[in-house]
Amino acid sequence: MTAIEVTDLRKSYGPTRAVDGVSFTVAKGETFGVVGHNGAGKTTTVECLVGLRRPDSGSVRVFGEDPVRRRRVLAQRIGVQLQESELPDRLRVGEAMRLFAAFYERPDDWRAVMDRWGLASIARKAYGDLSGGQKQRLKLGMAMLGRPELVVLDELTTGLDPVARRETWTLIGDLKASGTTVVLVSHYMDEAEELCDRVAVFSRGTVAALAGPRELVDITGTSSLEQAYFALIGEAR
């Protein structure tokens, strides 16, 4: 029942070791958090997971497949929202959903997905005119078009106001309730504490700790995941 298996993953950019011996597994249906400061190796690890980066060594398996060699096959089973992804400003919400639905062999009905994720009311709105929360809602809707078994969300709520963040949390909670496996990369410890079954704390390209949010709090003798995080990484930044 394993969705993801990462073993001794290593990736360097020139002399910089971005990921240095990372190992973890993610169970099917689990919401798995990846937290850490900038440069800790989070995004590189996620890019290896979805086949955008080739590891220097170690192995990555998603549903038993190599995500680089089998990227086209896995693309039909994975929904991805990456931090830096953007759309043309003049592209309308409905046009974007219809276009991206065409990338899948057996897509969900894009109109039904728009209704499900609260996009129908802004279907004719241009991407450049959307608020931050609406853009994130659109990206999440696009990630769901292929009826994914796994959804990878990289810094989904960065830059959102508190109301939009909470609305996005509700959407992620809906994914979790549906049995979808979720990998959530976040800077926000309260977000990981609220949404994730387990959390991998990244520091200097390694996993400094991996456990449930409550367990990490108990291990460190703190009162929140944010306090536990700082207790775990110390001066590792």
Description:
With 237 residues, the chain is an alpha/beta fold. The chain folds into 2 domains: 161 residues, P-loop containing nucleotide triphosphate hydrolases (Rossmann fold); 63 residues, no CATH class. The chain is 34% helix and 26% strand. It contains 9 helices and 9 strands. The strands form 2 sheets. The chain has a 6-stranded mixed sheet, sandwiched between helices. A 3-stranded antiparallel sheet has the order 2-1-4, with helices on one face. The model has no long low-confidence stretch (mean pLDDT 91). GO terms for molecular function: ATP binding.
List the SSEs and their pairings:
Blueprint: E1 2-13, E2 16-27, E3 31-35, H1 42-49, E4 57-62, H2 71-74, E5 78-81, H3 93-101, H4 110-116, H5 132-143, E6 150-154, H6 162-177, E7 181-186, H7 189-195, E8 198-203, E9 206-211, H8 213-220, H9 225-233
Helix pairs in contact: 5-6, 8-9
Please give a quick description of this structure.
This protein is an alpha/beta fold.
Please describe the biggest sheet, giving its number of strands, its sense, and whether it closes into a barrel.
6 strands, mixed
What's the order of the H and E elements?
EEEHEHEHHHEHEHEEHH
> Which structural class fits the helix and strand makeup?
alpha/beta
What strand line-up does the widest sheet have? 5-6-7-3-8-9
In CATH terms, the superfamily of the largest domain is P-loop containing nucleotide triphosphate hydrolases
First and last CA, distance: 35 Å
GO molecular function, one term: ATP binding
Main location: membrane
Membrane topology: Peripheral membrane protein
Domain ABC transporter: 4-229
